[in-house]
Amino acid sequence: MGRVTIGVDAGGTKTAAAMVTPGGEIVEFASVPTPRSDAEAALATLVDVTAEMMSRAGGHEVAGIGMGLAGLVDRARKVFVYGPNYPLLDVDVGRAMERFGLPVLVANDADVAAWAEYLFGAGRRCREMVMVTLGTGIGGGIVSGGRPFGGANGFAGEIGHLVFAADGVLEGDGAGRHWERFASGTALDAMARDAAAADPAGAIAGVAGGDPARARGADVVAAVTGGDAVALEVMDRYAARVAVGIAGLIQVLDPARVVVGGGVCEAGDALFEPLRSHVRRLVTGAEHRPEVPVVPAELGPHAGVIGAASLALEH
Q1: Which residue ranges form the domains of the chain, and what is each CATH number?
Q2: CB-count burial class (<10 Å; 0-12, 13-18, 19+) for 100
């Protein structure tokens, strides 16, 4: 049957697991909702989806287990330290996985997604790249010199928590000014509800079943693909919010490419054309430096499991 690795991708909304070949091909896949408020249930879910993949191994040789978790991960100790959108806190995930008797790697979910895009997706052959994931929050993964970049403690890439203050004044701890608060998929959900409430007979509310309170970012994407003017305006404002952070990353890290993932990318050019325009406007000296391509991820929702498995296989 061949050699495979199990990859697990646990985010704020769902926990997925897959059996992955060394070439990045998914042999088996499963996904369940992530328990948002119960740490014990979240850890049990990680164990359960891994066990589900092990039960499907058949004649495959399982080489190891890779875990991508949404938050700060001490990769050396295999401990999930903290995640604002994930219920675990200072949990030894590696110990929980010892029951399977296999080598285990535990890393940040955006880091492993970036690694998958570097190996098999939109970042192929790009040794200096940044990945931005627009989901429940905003995640980031950095590849430098063709290797994952983790920083001194393995915590690098927490780009969703960059603090922005439009009026130049920080209030309190600045938590309300985090980039992900106004540019994540969750933020687009809020923008969708506001737009639908302001235009209850419009396309966004219509896609949401006529109830503005149920509108989500996916409804904006659907209305955009139909050419709705209000949805296009919402998407342009959202693109400007995303561009604020991407322009900053370009100026700090000087990547050769920025890969953007998340369900909102299904909007295609309706997102990426204004996003690229806003990035060019915000990058200092843009006319005097090579333009950094901002491109959609290619592996979609499977990037996390593929990257977790592939990084575990390498280690």
Answers
A1: 3-121+301-314 (3.30.420.40), 130-297 (3.30.420.40)
A2: middle
CA 169 to chain centre: 29
CA distance 99 to 136: 30
pLDDT at 11: 87
DSSP state of 125: T
With a cut of 50, which residues of the chain have pLDDT below it?
169
- Listed in sequence order, the residues at least 6 apart from 26 whose beta carbon sits closer than 8 Å to its beta carbon are 18, 19, 20, 302, 305, 306
Structure tokens at 172: 């309190």
Structure tokens at 178: 């985090």
The gap from C-alpha 15 to its chain's centroid, in whole angstroms, comes to 13
| Nearby residues of 169 by Cβ (< 8 Å), 6 or more positions away | none
pTM: 0.91
